[in-house]
Amino acid sequence: MILAAEAFGVWAMAEGWNGNDPGEAPAFGAFLLALSRFMWRAVVRPRVDVYADGLQVIGFWGRHWIPGGAIRRIDTEDGMTVTTTGGDVIEIYAFSASLIDRGRTPAAAQQMRRAKPARPGRPGKVPDVLRSPDSTWADLLFVPMPVLAVLAMTGVYGTWN
After folding, report:
1. Which residue, 55, 58, 91, 113, is most buried by CB atoms nearer than 10 A?
2. Computed from CA positions of residues 89, 93, 96, 101, in that sequence, does the dihedral angle turn out positive or negative?
3. Whole-angstrom Cα distance, residue 5 to residue 96?
4. How far is it between the farthest Cα atoms of the chain?
5. Cα separation of the two ends of the chain
6. What's the angle, vertex CA 31, arms to CA 27 and CA 150, rounded to 5?
7. DSSP string, 117-152
8. What residues pair up with 62 in beta bridges, in sequence order?
9. What count of other Cβ atoms lies within 10 Å of the Cβ of residue 3?
10. Gap between the Cα atoms of 71 and 55, Å rounded
């Protein structure tokens, strides 16, 4: 789906760009790159890796390591959430209530429950949930669009005639 959107955007840009200002091509290209990165982060990348001792949750912007003893409840109502013994509620984007994930959520929750012990640990006795931001060099693709928009609003960019 992402590849098809990219291919159509490149085709449309090459086919119909003759009448447009040449300075708009970099802005449109930056828009396509940022859109593809956004679609990758929102649709393809989120997942949950189930281990014997916990869950590795990879979301839109961050990662969470949830030790098995810290899992109090896994809910599948209106998407999927993990409630920890410390009271944190962590949303799982990989199994949201979207069209893509519809029907897979209960099976995924059942598999995730294998990492949960029969009785959760006490809040002071289990390791904390580890949170970390998750960014890569490819996230720099989000930068050109706001920069080009600010330059266009100030009149610095787009005055090619």
Report:
1. 55
2. negative
3. 23
4. 70
5. 37
6. 55
7. -SSPPPTTTSPPPEEEE---GGGGGGSHHHHHHHHH
8. 133
9. 8
10. 9
Q: Is 92 helix (H, G, I), strand (E, B) or coil?
A: strand
Q: Which two tokens stand for residue 41?
A: 């982060």
Residues 11, 5: Cα–Cα separation, whole Å = 10
> How much is the pTM?
0.67
Token readout for 104 is 């897979």
Mean pLDDT for the stretch of residues 120-139: 76
Q: Please list the residues that pair with 159 across neighbouring strands.
A: none
**Positive or negative, the Cα torsion across 151, 153, 158, 161?**
negative
* Beta bridge mates, 47: 58
Among 110, 106, 108, 116, CA closest to 77: 106
Closest CA to 93 of 61, 50, 139: 61
Query: Taking 50 as the threshold, does the pLDDT of residue 161 lie above it?
Result: no
Residue 41 pLDDT grade (very low, low, confident, very high; cuts 50, 70, 90)? confident
User: Beta-strand (E) ranges in the chain?
Assistant: 47-51, 54-58, 62-67, 71-75, 80-84, 89-92, 130-133
